[in-house]
Write a structure and sequence with these properties.
It contains 5 helices and 6 strands. A 6-stranded antiparallel beta sheet has the order 5-1-2-3-4-6, covered by helices on one side.
Length: 174
């Protein structure tokens, strides 16, 4: 699912909505890790983890998910479409901080700024349009290493012995 791919690209924890045929109301799980082809969720109990493979996920996922993120520097609007000049200056300072040293700190959205945004959008696999909306703000903040952002880890190896053959969505304790 493309939405799931986007969540992986944004690299942020998210809350997923699931529905099974026998349940009348949806259930919500927090995505905390993607590693080695498996997806790990935090269950309703803080000590309960649920591990699944993407194919199993698609069977029960409603397609709805919620990604919570923080606009650390309060960049407002979609730059350059409807953002105040202060947001453009803040964006340019962020771009300088993450390595685009040639950015001019003016209130003009110039070609160099657009190219820097396009490069970041391409690097992170999001739509390349030169516009700094929510997704692009998230990837820029992800590039700034000194911000405390919770990310989906991808370097842990799961204990395969905890997987259930009969019910891959079965809750498991760590």
């Amino acid at each position: 699912n493309n939405d799931f791919d986007l969540i992986k690209k944004l690299n942020l924890p998210a809350i997923f909505e699931f529905q099974t045929p026998e349940d009348l109301s949806p259930k919500y799980l927090t995505l905390i890790e993607i590693a080695k082809g498996n997806i790990r969720f935090l269950g309703s109990n803080i000590n309960v983890f649920i591990e699944a493979q993407p194919g199993t996920l698609k069977k029960f996922w409603t397609g709805r998910s919620f990604v919570f993120w923080r606009n650390f520097l309060n960049c407002k609007g979609n730059i350059p479409v409807d953002a105040p000049k202060e947001s453009l200056i803040t964006l340019k300072m962020l771009l300088r901080d993450i390595g685009f040293k040639e950015i001019d700190l003016s209130t003009r959205y110039d070609e160099y700024t657009r190219k820097a945004i396009n490069n970041l959008q391409e690097k992170h696999g999001i739509e390349i349009d030169g516009i700094v909306g929510t997704k692009t703000k998230i990837v820029i903040y992800n590039e700034k290493k000194d911000l405390e952002i919770p990310h989906l880890s991808s370097n842990q190896i799961f204990d395969k012995s905890k997987n259930s053959e009969n019910n891959p969505m079965e809750e498991q304790s760590p």
